[in-house]
Amino acid sequence: MSAPSPSPPSRAPFPVTVGRDRRALQLAALAALLILARLAMPLGVGLLLGALLAFVLQPFYDRLRTHMRPAFAALACAIGSMLCVGIILFGLGYVIVVQGVDLVSQLPSAFAPGGTFHDVTQHTFSRLHINPDEVLDKLRGAAIEAGAKAAGIAAAVAGATFEGLLTLLILTLTTFYVLVHWLQVVQSSQRDLPFHPSHVRALLDEFRETGRQVLFGNITAGLIQGLLAGVGYWVTGVPKPALFGALTAVASLIPAIGTFMAWASIGAYLILTGHTWAGIVELIYGALIIGALVDYVVRPRLVATRSSIPALLTFIGLLGGTEVFGLIGLILGPLIVTMCMAILKIYDEAAAPNPSIQSAVPNPAVAPAGPPAAPASALESGGGQTAR
Known about the structure:
With 388 residues, this protein is mainly alpha-helical. 78% of the residues lie in helices and 0% in strands. Helix 2 (44-65) packs across helix 3 (70-110).
């Protein structure tokens, strides 16, 4: 009779790591995160925009989830957002690149004798006792050089179609993943990161709210300002109103003075070229509709901000982010600034002295010399015996 075959050994659960094993595992986990981050850097724009778009779509996703499976709801939100983002980006890119190149190519003739800017430039610099012919020659040369560069930029944009489609695909996949798995991401971060869980939750909530504000509030308000500005430019007779409306929408990402620089420059251009009443109407329309209405009525209704960042730090985030990260820095810069401010705020609250602990510690400078007084409850209970 043959001996029974031995049963396969059962897999033991992972032991609790302590000491050197735990430190080694932490280093391995950190190395894995760094490797994943390095691999994801070429796709960073799509990943960032997809995560922010998921934060914006969270209310719609919650509503759809009550009528269908979570995966189908997230898929519907991701595909719908991909179509909307693609149409908006294609429209803005077409208007800015195609019409912008056409406008820049017309600048040399505008500074030539009989052109739009020739008489204005000659009259202005003559009053300043500067030779207008030299200024016009330099302006024509700069316009010709700008036209050559604009043609090169247009060719580069046309050649980046595949990269744009890849970014749009990554954006869609990221939006789907964040909508479905955001709760698991928060729970894993609270468990694995070496911070207090409440601090981790506060940082993630700040990241989500700030991303929603930057992407939905600012960009949506900017698109509204660009649309309204284009209507104003068309009414006042500005050439290529769609182009200047798109440029106004891009300028709205610069706080306080972005759209002002756009419509104020257009109004000044109309006045200097002899269209005085059109320029005055443009300035009034820009101040009341493009500026006051959108910035003080529409934008606050789009996103109710929980905290305000000083304007100086906002400029640092926008300009510094653009310098470091390129065009995506217009979104990434304010996010980084807000997250840094949130970390400093959490640290300040954690480092602040606890009033309850401080009041419980006796101050030796004011402590009485005699024995400590009995509690009030003890005096009340033993008062009769003391009197007797």
